[in-house]
UniProtKB/TrEMBL annotation:
Protein's UniProt name: Chaperone protein DnaJ
Keywords associated with the record: Chaperone, Metal-binding, Repeat, Zinc, Zinc-finger
Source organism per UniProt: Geodia barretti (Barrett's horny sponge)
GO biological process annotation, one example: response to heat
Biased composition (Basic and acidic residues): 389-402
J domain sequence ranges: 5-69
Domain CR-type span(s) in chain numbering: 132-214
Zinc finger (CR-type): 132-214
Length: 402
């Protein structure tokens, strides 16, 4: 098979890309490496695979090979470069070899492992989310075993160093191949990487060193939290193993809706209903706040629907800060869907006033004859102030009607 085509050796087409050639080489090398494949011809096949890759992975050599065959590359790539250069995607041949035989695990002994994190949820009222609260949550977590103090052995019994690994938790085995001597490092099976042997496991934790207990944890929730946020309590999760640290407890917050207020970031939004007379004339309103104290807000005449007014520092506190957002009062001018008879008369009178017609008429709906002026009578100058007073009086009557 020494004269076999390099493309055939790797099992790729002649127009294969560099990535395809590299992938094919890795698969073939894994299959025929002498330390993994014990067939008599595995070593020879591995050399051919490496030779083919050394040529086809080099653009210049590949071009010469395609034109002139092996003669164009002076007999291939023998002696050119390291026979393990093709494993660069695995961090070098040493890394991939270690992944086969365990040699990469120079620290395969029992390593400290951090404990698991725990999750819990609390529900807060709107006011509690603004000003903060204290809650108690019940959790079930792994803690050091009380009976054996986390050692894993029954109290009063001995813990001996492992005879196989001599307390290191690792065993090393050397293998010799055509490429030299390789050392395999793996966790000790006798002690499972602990380095010690427990002759009499704890009767409570069965040698694990941990047991599950129920605990009630007090959680301080800061002001300004919102639904979906989490409060982290460091070290309140499961205890670690082999000297590892404890996990954390994460408390998720769910905030109930309020019947008056909505939240927008650090601002609190309050919808203030107004009737059309109040919006037109202006009015002073008492506004409730989340603090529990009312605020007086004066709305000017001609307040438009959708207008907003701010009451400073009556919103939600910024997390980890003394600053607070604002309270935004959103004006909702409500148009009545039905009117009483008196309200309708007033609205019709207001409409005529806006259109410049006579401001009043008898309530029986009958027209009133106008007196003709004498031709010699001087024209009367309109008094704008009197018209304004009439409109204002009409507005007041409408306001009272609503």
């Amino acid at each position: 098979m020494a004269d076999q085509d390099f493309y055939t050796v790797l099992g790729v087409a002649r127009n294969a890309s560099n990535e395809e050639i590299r992938g094919a080489f890795r698969r073939k090398a894994m299959e025929f490496h002498p330390d993994r494949n014990k067939n008599p011809d595995a070593e020879e096949r591995f050399k051919e695979i490496n030779e083919a890759y050394q040529v086809l992975s080099d653009t210049k050599k590949r071009g010469q090979y395609d034109r002139f065959g092996k003669a164009g590359v002076n007999g291939g790539a023998q002696g050119a470069g390291s026979p393990f250069d093709g494993f660069e995607g695995f961090g070098g041949f040493g890394d991939i070899f270690d992944s086969f035989f365990g040699g990469a695990s120079a620290n395969m002994g029992r390593q400290p492992r951090r404990g698991g994190d725990l999750q819990q949820q609390v529900t807060l009222s709107f006011e509690e989310s603004v000003f903060g609260a204290h809650r108690e949550v019940d959790i079930s977590r792994l803690e050091p075993c009380n009976h054996c103090s986390g050692a894993g052995n029954e109290p009063g019994t001995s813990v001996d160093a492992c005879a196989d690994c001599r307390g290191s938790g690792q065993v090393r085995r050397s293998q010799r191949s055509v490429f030299g001597q390789f050392t395999q490092v793996a966790p000790c099976h006798a002690c499972r990487g602990r380095g010690s042997i427990v002759n009499s496991p704890c009767s409570i934790c069965r040698g694990g060193g941990r047991e599950r207990r129920k605990r009630r944890i007090e959680v301080k929730i800061p002001g300004g939290v919102d639904s979906g946020m989490q409060v982290r309590l460091n070290g309140e999760g499961d205890v670690g193993s082999d000297g590892g640290g404890s996990g954390n407890l994460y408390v998720s917050v769910n905030v109930q809706e309020h019947n008056l207020f909505q939240r927008d970031g650090t601002d609190i939004v309050f919808n203030l209903p107004l009737n059309i007379a109040e919006a037109a004339l202006g009015v002073e309103k008492t506004i409730p706040t989340v603090d529990g104290f009312d605020e007086e807000l004066k709305l000017p005449q001609g307040t438009q629907p959708g207008a907003e007014f701010r009451i400073r520092n009556k919103g939600v506190p910024h997390l980890h800060s003394n600053r607070r957002g604002d309270m935004r009062v959103h004006v909702d001018v409500r148009i009545p869907s039905s009117l009483s008879g008196h309200q309708r008369e007033l609205m019709e009178e207001l409409a005529r006033s806006f259109n410049g017609d006579e401001p009043t008429r008898p309530r029986n709906g009958k027209g009133r004859k106008r007196s003709r002026k004498k031709e010699t009578e001087e024209p009367v100058q309109n008094d704008q102030n009197s018209d304004d007073s009439a409109d204002k009086g009409l507005f007041d009557r409408i306001k009272e009607a609503f």
